[in-house]
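ingest -> validate -> predict -> emit
validate: passed (alphabet ok, no gaps, 389 aa)
predict: started
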Amino acid sequence: MNKLKINLSDKTKKKIKIGTILLLIIIIVLSISLYIGNENVRTFFDRYILRKEVVENNVSSIDLSNIENPKIYAYDKYITILNKNILSTYSSSGKKEYEHEIAVSDPLFSASNRFLAVAQKNGTNLYLVSGSDLLWNVEIEDAIQKVIVNKNGYVCVITSGSSYKTVIYTFSPAGKELFKTYLSSTSAIDASISNDNKYLSVAEINTSGTVIQSNIKIISIEKAQNDPTNSVIYTYNAEANKLIVSIKYQDKNRLAILYDDGIYTLYEEKEEQAVSFKEAKITFSSVDLSNYTLYTIEKSAGLFNSNTQVILRNTDTSKENVYTAPGTLRDVKTHDNNIALNLGSEVHFINTNGWLTKKYVSEKEINDIVLGQGVAGIVYKDKIEIINL
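emit:
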């Protein structure tokens, strides 16, 4: 009889355990559904459960009160400040971790993964930094106009001032000059190095004729090291009077292209239009994300109110994710998979899935935002507030 009671008790416990698990699953599924489908529920969860909202003076900060005219940037998990030829690197706690002395006063920055390239604007000095290490520095012959680094530390530099309209230098992660690309009749607007380090794409424009002609040259990095003259493996000629603004290599060697009238992708020598700016009032746009492009549309939300839709389009699948921000955007910053939306006294940090990751609320107007992979800096006149992402 006692044995039978024990067996019945075990069965009851098992049923209770299964019932509890099923109840938890139902609660989790219901919560997720409400979070996705109900804005009020989502706001409650973000604020009180997930603790996504942070307020001014309640995070780590960097004091700027004694720094005159600082040049501020973010990369990887660091905030950097250039002042009087000293590049200071701060952790997400606001602690100064490293200092590097560099001959740069008016910097051009570019960051990807753990690498930060710094160059003197209209000068000749170029540096590559990674955390505590100043990996290399070189002095080139021409005036630097733009610097680009890929996620593996390959660097290219667009220059002017020689007998050519543009000369583009390409360097290995070790600082070795691999080759130069000469443009005699066109000007380079932007460049990008593929994630597999095989290709350099150069966006160029020719304004000498009656119409603007934009082109994209794709260069084999391997061929260019042995025969730069014959290293162009493909040239794409855009429609007349279309102006290229920027380009960015994404995965699978898909090139995202921002024109003045829309966003396109170039893949396996075929260009496809992602969005036309003629169809809607576009306020901001960017191709500087990992595998997405971004554009924003301001929408009326009543007589005196408006919202802004942030549309994130996957360049591989063409799937779009949408985030709706309340009000008018002052600025948008993008880096890797992070997006920062400046609403004046608020910043919404979202990812490429269209989900809010952090919300920063300020008591006053925000001057600027710097954005890295794991950290963001809210810039004021006298301080930088640090947000961990």
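The CA atoms of residues 244 and 259 lie 4 Å apart.
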